[in-house]
Amino acid sequence: MKVLFLNGVSDKQKSLDQTLKGNQLTVQCTGTSNVGDLLKTSSVNKLNAIIGFYEAPLSSENLENVDCIFNEIAEPDSHKKSLEKACEILRETHTPIINHPKHILETTRNKIYETLVHLDEQLIVPKTIRVVAGLNNLCDRVQEAGIQYPIIFRGCGSHGGVDTVLLHNAFELTEVSRTLVDGNEYYITEFYEYKDKLNLYTKCRLVVIDGEVYIRHWMHAKDWLVHARNRRREYDLLEKKKIQNFDVTVKGKIQPLITKIYNLVKLDYFGIDCHIDEKFNILLFELNATMNIFTSSGGSEHIAVSKLNDAIVEMVKRKDISYVCNE
């Protein structure tokens, strides 16, 4: 089957990393699901298109000559224009679409909060607001929103802990606001303490594929901002055990909640970074389709990659057969 993987340039036109391999120009986009390049399968003929890069527009004929379209434009803050253009291009097509761009546009951090905050008692969604430097008095906005300190302050469109700080009071927020560029947008999120009995912070990455939840990794760190670079390697065996036992010990406890989330966000494929406590309550950190699932940082996540790969391939095949997508 033929699958068109659709990408796009960022609003600032800085989304392309171009390398020349032999006589072929390879282009890597940012703000992408990054599935097409890394998906391993012999049953899918992978085609690529980048909105805003090639002048030749995607025609309806091109779209109808593939079995499925996988929209990989996944960052609504940095790629809003490409997503809006993708909505226009795909409006008339009858080809099945994975992760329709109109649904990606609804996955900014503040919109995810608004969508999921009252969904279920099992899900904790920290209050999140979007602010503009120079336009908003940030301390006033925090107070008006009823957000309690400490707060997480980050740039819109940033990931991986970049441009992210924990601020404990209004004085620290005021000091940070003095360094900001007027007009730039930021997120303010209420911080929830989630240290466990081992005095560690744990973060797991869930991957939702066609509504079914999978585990990608389960990291431990001493710092609240858990990433591969600060994970505690002495807990690798514990992480491996949690990943291997996930289907038996955790999946059944959270799948009903994940199904509710899936039905609301209307994405066929996305990731969830979160903390899962002993009672299987989920503290949501972020939900989006940009998360890395295939490349490993040397931890136990390699155990899950093959299973995730196969699940995505099967999802793509089902779209072709059923002509049904999560609309």
What does this structure look like?
By secondary structure, this protein is α/β, with parallel strands linked by helices. The protein folds into 3 domains: 2-99, no CATH class; 127-190, Dna Ligase, domain 1; 201-322, 2-Layer Sandwich (D-amino Acid Aminotransferase, Chain A, domain 1), CATH 3.30.470. Helix content is 28%, strand content 27%. The chain is built from 10 helices and 15 strands. The strands form 4 sheets. A 5-stranded mixed sheet has the order 7-15-14-12-13. Strands 4-1-5-6 form a 4-stranded parallel sheet. A hairpin with an 8-residue loop joins β9 and β10 (164-167). It starts with a strand and ends in a 5-residue tail after the last helix.
Name the helix and strand elements from N-terminus to C-terminus, one letter apiece.
EEEEHEHEHHEEHEEHEEEHHHEEH
> How much of the polypeptide forms β-strand, as a percent range?
25-35%
Q: Report the radius of gyration as a whole number of Å.
A: 20 Å
Strand order of the largest sheet: 7-15-14-12-13
Query: Could you report the average pLDDT, rounded to the nearest whole number?
Result: 88
- CATH topology name of the largest domain, in short, is D-amino Acid Aminotransferase, Chain A, domain 1
CATH architecture label of the largest domain: 2-Layer Sandwich
- The beta-strand count equals 15
> What is the CATH superfamily classification of the largest domain?
ATP-grasp fold, B domain
Q: What's the quaternary structure here?
A: single chain
CATH class of the largest domain: Alpha Beta
> Count of helices?
10
Number of structural units classed as domains: 3
Structural class: alpha/beta
What is the straight-line distance between the termini? 22 Å
Sketch the major β-sheet.
Answer: 5 strands, mixed
Ranges where pLDDT stays below 50 over 5 or more residues in a row are 17-25
Q: Fraction of residues in helices?
A: 25-40%
